[in-house]
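Predict the 3D structure for this chain.
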Amino acid sequence: MAPELYVQRDQPPGVPPLHLTGERTLPDVPEENYWFRRHLVVYEWIAARERGRRVVDLACGEGYGSAVLARTAASVVGVDANPEAHEHARLKYGGGRLRFERDMVETWSGDVDCVAFLQTIEHVQDPDAVMGRLRDLAGPAGVVYVSTPNVLTLAPPGAERSDNPWHMREYRPEEFRALCERSFTRVELLGLLHARRLRVHQFAVERLAWDSIHRRLGLTQAFYDRFGPAISTRDFALRDTPLEHALDLVAVLRP
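Done. Predicted structure below.
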C-alpha cells in the first residue's frame, strides 16, 4: 500500500485527519508507529532538558512535538508552512502555552531562547543559511536542537543515499558535525539507537536470519501487525557513541 493511502485515525471532533505522504511522520497511523515513536522520543528528551524555555518548533508538521515541548516550556510556537498541517495542529493542540503560526523557517521571527528543528535539515537546499538562521533566532544565550537521519543506516548498504524523494541532502556523522560547526561554537552530537525490544529485533534480523524465518513460517504479516503498533519511545535510546551505527543524529548547539 502506498504511503499516501494511510490516513490518521480517531481524530478529535472538528480536526481533519492528515494523509501520510512520506514527507512527515504522523501519530494515529498504526503502520507509521515506528517512525512516529522514533521522532517523538527526541521531543520528549528535549522537553525534559529545557524546562521553562521560550521555544519555537520550526517545521513542526502535525504538531505533536510542539505539544510535547509545551508540557515543560514557558511557551511554544509551532511553525509550519503547509496549510493543512498548520490548520490541523492549531485545531488539535493549540491553546494555553502553545500556539501555531503558518510561516517559513527563513522568515519567522519571535522572542525565543530555544529552537527545535528536527528531521528537516535534510529537506533544505541551503543548509548553511538555515543553520545561521537558527543560531540568530536562539540568540547568544539560547540553545538549538537539530536532528537528521544518519545516511549510513538509512540508505541501503553501499548506496550514497536513501530513496526518499523529499530529501535534498543526507548526512554522515562527520558531515553533519561539520555543518553544525560552521555556524555554532559548541556542538554536542548524539546518536539515536534501538533499545529494548527493537534492539532484540535488530539482533534477530542481523544475526539469526529472522527475516527469512518469518517468511518461511508464514508469520510476517501477523507478526508485524502486532509488533509495529507496540513500539514505544522506550525502545529507543540517545547515546554519544557509536555515531556510525546511529539511526538519527541529534545535535545540541550553542553559539
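DSSP finds nine helices and eight strands in the chain.
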